[in-house]
Specification:
Layout lengths: L2 E7 L4 E7 L4 E5 L6 H13 L3 E6 L5 H4 L2 H7 L4 E3 L4 H4 L2 H7 L11 E3 L5 E4 L2 E7 L8 E5 L4 E5 L2 E2 L2 E2 L9 H12 L7 E4 L5 E2 H7 L6
Parallel strand pairs: 3-4, 4-5, 5-6, 10-13
Antiparallel strand pairs: 1-2, 2-3, 7-8, 8-9, 9-10, 11-12, 13-14
Length: 213
Amino acid sequence: MIKVEVFQFNDFAENTYVLSDDTKECVIIDPGCHSQAERDVLISYISQNGLKPVKLLNTHCHIDHILGNEFVSTHYQLPIHLHKEELFTYNETKRWTVMFNMPDIAIPENLVYVNEGDKIPFGNTTLDILFTPGHSIASISFYCKEDGFVISGDVLFMHSIGRTDLPGGNLETLLKSIRTKLFTLPNSTKVFSGHGPSTSIVAEKTNNPYLKN
């Protein structure tokens, strides 16, 4: 059984996830911790629960989701797992810091490329990778069939979808990703989004105004 812990970090109210199982191994997804106080919150949770971080995963590389990459990668000596085509977004980080009038941030180069169909193992758990572009050029989602949930990044939200007006975004592609990758999951699947509250596949099939045929 996986425990899913969510932290809301940075000025963009981004959701950072720590997934752990009975072995105490854990993965950190989209670390958005930007301030020292936010870093301390993340470290304290991991330490107090006796967890061992073994993987750092990015659903996509918009700046709000990677502000803590360098810290987590360095502190826990972990490479960053992302889709290779998302390097387009990753390499634009300096542009985003200028756009949002933020201090420049370090961009780690210790990267591991993953693709749809790959497995992300940790402890006694395996996550499946789904290729779900549209919000960004190569966003991925992490699906746990056994525990019935998916980490969707900024692809799907409660009653909403990810914005598509940023470089690499495309509305038609995003809607196709949701309908052919996420909406084919069991209706009971819980959806943990990159911002806001969790939802479910059946709730979004029924109530999401952007996805009604």
